[in-house]
Amino acid sequence: MNGARISVTTEDGKPVAEATTDAQGRWDVQVEDPGRYKVTLDVGSLPQNAEARGGTNVRTLSVYEGNCSTALFPLQPKGGGQDQGQQSDDNSAFWTRAAQLTFEGFNLGLIIALAALGLSLIYGTTGLTNFAHGELVTLGAILAYGFNAGMGLGLIPAAAIAVIVAGLLGYLQDRFFWGQLRRRGTGIIAMMIISIGVALFLRYLFLIVFGGQTEAYTQYNAQPGVQVGPISAAPKNFVAMGIELVVLIIVGIALLRTRTGKAARAVADNPALAASSGINVDRVVRIIWTSGGAIAALAGIMLGLSQNLKYTMGQEMLLLIFAGVTLGGLGTAFGALIGSLVVGLFIQVSTLWVPPELKSVGALAVLIIVLLVRPQGILGRRERIG
């Protein structure tokens, strides 16, 4: 939207600066000091047939030193009084936006799928619903940031090292913590409650180490968009989606074709029978924890590429991960992939009709509907109880 006026003030109303949007609807204001600022869209500068979606034209932002903050003002057409040409333009804009949101939904769905894959494999082999899995996602992003911004490595080698370190930490988790609890006969419910405590511990450890501010990687931040048909995205998004697809395909082939993958599926199916068949169940579970930690870290790095890093990023994503796993079927790796793609598409495309602030509510709706209609999920199997 070209020519819309934006004004920025301090939280107590002191004027800071004004800006006007360009032909792509972009604007930029430089502020001297970090703090909280109010950003106001002048609705009088909008075309007569447009209005701010949700009825609000004010955003309050926290600006940190050395970082930029973003304020978005989604617009929607006003109802009534449109001629045929205007309706045609609106329809064209609607389908263009729908295509863009579908692409973004696939991007988000693939990130969720990476995180959900590890959670689903851990549940399938141990029966543990790990509420600390979101923190494994955050861990990967923070490790990559530490190697990238703290040690000066390029993002690609920093990401590779972060994935390896996160995989090692996943192994150590099971070797010295979860494995010890299993050997002591700790029940699944008790372990699930313990995982909530682990999540809280890690979250506030990240707050102490990383801080409460928002950060970004030192590379691949401000990339110009590439137009592919109706879709516009930064090159890093296409590369990230390619990496995510390759990793998911490799993991899928490993589960189907390798001895370890077949052993993991056997343990997920019946641990006692797998053990009696000569499979080292503890070894398989450790491999799953190692792989799950590494894949979750990769998901965190990819999430950090598409948005800024913060210590709660995994916690905020956890609901979407559980929604994807539940929709696909608990304990099924391929179900987690399908369910995550559906969730990603659903919450992004839903912003065509609902405010963006409420889009994650769709994940909760998916959970409720699946549990009511098909509790075992898309690829899950019914189980006999009693």
From TrEMBL:
Signal peptide: none annotated. The keyword Transmembrane applies. Keywords: Amino-acid transport, Cell inner membrane, Cell membrane, Membrane, Transmembrane, Transmembrane helix, Transport. It is found in: Cell membrane. The chain crosses the membrane at residues 105-123, 143-169, 189-210, 238-256, 287-305, 317-347. One of its GO terms (cellular component) is plasma membrane. Residues 1-23 are annotated as: Disordered. It is a multi-pass membrane protein. Coiled coil: none annotated. Belongs to the binding-protein-dependent transport system permease family. LivHM subfamily. This is Branched-chain amino acid ABC transporter permease. It comes from Nonomuraea deserti.
